[in-house]
Design brief:
The structure holds two protein chains of two kinds.
Chain A: H1 3-19, H2 22-41, H3 44-54, H4 56-62, H5 68-73, H6 85-119, H7 124-147, H8 155-173, H9 179-187, H10 193-205, H11 219-239
Chain B: E1 4-15, E2 18-29, E3 32-38, H1 44-52, E4 59-64, E5 70-72, H2 84-95, H3 99-113, H4 129-141, E6 147-151, H5 159-174, E7 178-183, H6 186-192, E8 195-200, E9 203-209, H7 210-215, H8 221-229
Helix pairs in contact in B: 3-4
The chains are: A mainly alpha, B alpha/beta.
């Protein structure tokens, strides 16, 4: 089995799955509607900031049912995936899903960039914000993939979203006790290891804040977390057997 | 070239406290049909999945002496978002089947198993269970495997299709292919099997050629199988 054929086929399978899901188009329409609404009601600049903050979630949503769905339905108990090839296919989905989501957000960003350049509102900073958003997206796929070993039917995505809501509400209701951390978040200043550790945890829950200029340096933490979840996925896959039907 | 295409040595697999397969050893010959018989839960499917790498055996060794074995599961499942033609296309690409050769093989095998090629344009998930089984044969055979492993070869098939599949097995054997057929349908197996392996509670009770069994004055395969049903399994 040639590696190039394997990569081509695995990409084909992942692409077909994503593009055959109606929820994918509903999500795209929803994101486009929010951004268009902000542009119409406010400005190009604010809608672009909304785009940067929201698009990493596309990577999260695209990771729904990434693993368990195919493991449990028995579709991998097939000659095409014999002798452990199913493990390669599942792990490589991280790459293909990332590339698919990237293609969508690059197309959207190109539209913003073209408009921004034409109207003289484009800044090189936007490019860095976009790259930070993509970094957050890569992290979402790695954690979404890891969670999908245990959470079925899109609940891997739900777990992350609920975690984000819980963190937001928790921070809101305990704001008076956490003024120090909130000040550090606002100033993006983390003087000691304890506060840096808290930041990493916060980034793990809401990596979208990377797109804020103040947090560019924290991208290394997110890349580290993405690698951590990829290693966990690899360990899970190494022990994976197709026994449930 | 050795006559043996598949050798399994001391294969063992445990699920929690249950020893599903215990030191199973056997071999499968080229140009022969090997019936792998056992009751429900005897360890047939676990053994097959161990051979194909879908399960990781706790111990033992599997030696497959061919490029790519074919496999037809008892209840085949397919990606629900793909048509039959798309599945054959990616299988051919992955396993190195020539595009021009593929069309010829699809016609020939569809005809042999009684599969309507017009169905290929539809998603496999929409096929009847019988057509899904036939499609699984089609997918496995387009790679022209020297060894075909089939779990319950006749399940979901109507009598006409059973006859077609039986004839296909005999033709494959004549072409020098090896077949390992795991089944409950002993009467069907008796018509075509050259070798028989009986497994019970994860242990092999018998590995013998059918010719030799009859030469030794043993009863027919069904009676033999039922006689083993009452026996305690022994380590081989």
């Amino acid at each position: 089995m040639s590696v190039s054929h394997r990569l081509e086929v695995n990409f084909f399978l992942t692409r077909k799955k994503v593009l055959s899901a109606k929820s994918f188009y509903a999500l795209l329409a929803g994101l486009a509607a929010i951004i268009a609404y902000v542009w119409i009601k406010d400005s190009f600049s604010l809608s672009l900031q909304f785009f940067f903050f929201l698009f990493p979630h596309l990577f999260l949503f695209i990771s729904q049912d990434m693993m368990m769905d195919e493991i449990e339905t028995g579709v991998l108990e097939n000659i095409a995936f014999a002798h452990g090839a199913f493990r390669d296919y599942l792990f490589e989905k991280n790459i293909y899903l990332f590339l698919l989501a990237l293609a969508v957000v690059v197309a959207a960003f190109s539209f913003f960039a073209a408009y921004g350049l034409a109207s003289g509102q484009f800044s090189a900073r936007f490019l860095i914000q976009f790259l930070m958003g993509v970094t957050a997206g890569a992290y979402y796929i790695s954690i979404g993939g890891f969670l999908s070993f245990n959470f079925k039917g899109g609940s891997n995505v739900l777990v992350v979203v609920i975690g984000q809501l819980a963190a937001f509400i928790g921070l809101l209701f305990s704001a008076t006790q956490r003024l120090g951390f909130i000040d550090q978040l606002t100033a993006a200043s983390f003087p000691d290891w304890s506060s840096r550790l808290k930041l990493i945890v916060f980034l793990g829950v809401l990596p979208n804040i990377l797109v804020s200029e103040k947090y560019f340096a924290a991208s290394l933490g997110i890349i580290g977390l993405a690698c951590f979840f990829l290693v966990l996925q690899k360990l899970k896959l190494g022990a994976l057997e197709l026994k449930k039907r | 070239m050795s006559d043996v295409i598949l050798r399994v040595e001391n294969l063992a697999k445990r699920f929690g406290r249950v020893e599903a397969v215990k030191n199973v050893s056997f071999s499968v010959r080229r140009a022969a049909i090997t019936a792998f018989l056992g009751e429900n839960g005897a360890g047939k499917t676990t053994t097959i999945k161990g051979i194909l790498g879908f399960l990781k055996p706790d111990a033992g060794r599997v030696e497959v002496r061919c490029r790519q074995p074919g496999y037809v599961p008892e209840h085949p499942a397919f990606f629900p978002w793909l048509t039959g033609r798309e599945i054959l296309g990616f299988t051919a690409k992955l396993l190195g089947v020539d595009r021009n050769e593929l069309a010829r093989l699809v016609d020939r095998i569809s005809d042999a198993v009684g599969f309507d090629p017009a169905l290929l344009e539809r998603r496999v998930q929409t096929y009847s269970s019988g057509n899904q089984k036939k499609f699984s044969y089609l997918q496995s055979l387009i790679v022209s495997p020297d060894l075909l492993i089939v779990d319950e070869p006749f399940s979901s098939l109507d009598p006409v299709s059973i006859k077609s599949v039986r004839e296909l097995f005999l033709r494959l054997k004549e072409e020098g292919k090896a077949l390992l057929l795991s089944s409950h349908l002993i009467s069907e197996m008796e018509k075509i099997a050259d070798d028989v392996i009986i497994i019970k509670q994860g242990s092999i009770l018998l590995e013998e050629s059918v010719e030799r069994l009859y030469r030794d004055g043993r009863p027919d395969l069904e009676a033999l199988f039922l006689s083993f049903h009452e026996q305690r399994p022994q380590e081989t």
